[in-house]
Design a protein that fits this description.
Keywords: Coiled coil. This protein is an alpha+beta fold and 188 residues long. The chain is 40% helix and 31% strand. The longest helix is centred in the first third of the chain and has 42 residues.
């Protein structure tokens, strides 16, 4: 502590204490500012990555789901015959539902290879179906098909109801562990 500081401390003790408190606060704020700048850079880089990734997707819809939140339905063309439908809750960066599809342009058929949802009864699967039907309409698809496999056996009844709700014909195997699902475009 230098002589002028000691002298000021004797003459103006409250003022010097306040000045010392403000200097300490300034140091703390400087550290906090540096941390925030670092977090801002990380966030900015993340957003750039998300923007770049989203350029590969086509937005099919933004709709409200059962929990009141908004979700977006995206189409991702992996190849000329393979595509995905993803449903993202706008608050999260992980999909809540996705479908993997194969498309036969000549036969005008889409095959559902796989469909998963992270939560039941939140309408994520129904949003994925809306996306699927939007794609089917744009590609003049005449038939959508798929299977319910033994892996899905523990919730076969729920899946049967789900597909029937979306106008699929569900044909169960005799053992009721497997089912074929088929949707056909109505003849005009």
């Amino acid at each position: 502590m230098n002589l002028s500081h000691r002298f000021a401390k004797m003459l103006f003790p409250k003022l010097v204490l306040e000045l010392d408190r403000l200097r300490q606060k300034n140091k703390e704020l400087s550290v906090e500012h540096a941390e925030m700048e670092s977090q801002y850079e990380v966030l900015q880089n993340s957003l750039k990555g998300i923007y770049k990734a989203l350029q590969k997707f086509q937005l099919l819809a933004i709709e409200q789901v059962n929990n009141g939140e908004l979700a977006m339905v995206l189409r991702h063309d992996i190849s000329p015959s393979d595509l995905q439908i993803l449903v993202y809750d706008l608050d999260f960066l992980e999909p809540f539902a996705f479908m993997e599809l194969t498309y036969d342009r000549e036969l005008r058929i889409i095959h559902i290879n796989r469909m998963e949802t992270s939560e039941s009864n939140q309408s994520y699967g129904s949003l994925a179906m809306k996306g699927l039907f939007k794609i089917a309409e744009s590609l003049w698809i005449r038939k959508i098909e798929g299977e319910i496999t033994p892996v899905d056996g523990d919730h076969l009844d729920r899946l049967k109801s789900f597909y029937e709700k979306h106008q699929f014909h569900v044909r169960l195997s005799n053992e009721k562990k497997y089912a074929k699902i088929v949707w056909k475009r109505a003849q005009s």
